[in-house]
Known about the structure:
Protein Transport Mog1p, Chain A
Amino acid sequence: xxxxxxxxxxxxxxxxxxxxxxxxxxxxxxPYISKKRGYYIIELPQRKYQLFDQPNLPxxxxxxxxxxxxxxxxxxxxxxxxxxWRNIDFPNFNxxxxxxxxxxxxxxxxxxxxxxxxxKDSTGINLFDKMVADAFTLTNKNNVVSSSxxxxxxxxxxxxxxxxxxxxGNAATSKQFFLSDTTKNFLRGALYFDVTPNADSLRxxxxxxQVDMDHIINTFKWKNKG
Length: 226
C-alpha cells in the first residue's frame, strides 16, 4: 500500500515538474515586450484670453484667463533690475513664463568673471547687440541636456520683432524668446516648469502652452516706442 502511494506520488511529481519546465522555457524563449510608461492624463482648459495693460509698464499683451500675471520680486534668488519684470503663472500646470525687461541704452548690473573664477558686479550699458548675444548664450547653456536648439525669426502684425527658441530634450526651459524694437525696449521670456524636466511627460502641456505663447507674442505691443 505504501509502495503504491509512493509510486503515484513520484509519478505526479515528475508530471508536475515537466509541465513547470515547459512553461518556464517557453516563457524564456518568448520575445520580450516592453511596457509603455504611463503618465497622468492632464485636463487642458478651454482657451480664452484677457488684456494685460498696466499704466506704469512699457508693454501690453493678451494672456490666458487660466494664468496669473504677477510682479517678479525675486528672479532665481536675485532682485530684478527694475519694476517692469513680470511672471505669467500657470498654476494648473506648475509652469511659469519669466518676463525680464531692459531699456536699451539704460544701465544694468552685470556679472563679470574675474581671473580667479569669481564673479564681480559691474554696471554696464544695455547695448542691443550685447543683449541679443546674451539671449543666444543663455539658450545655448542647455546644450548639455538638449537634443536640439532651433531658432526662428518673429515678426508680428503689431510690428514686433524678435527670435523664438525651441529647445529639444530634457532642458530646464524648452521655449524662450526675446522681443525688441532695437532702439528703446528689449524683453526676454522663458518658460519653466516647477518639476523635474521630462520631455515626454511634459510634451502635451508644452504643446498647449506653445499656442498661448504665440498669442502673447502676437498681441504684444510697446507703449513707448523708441
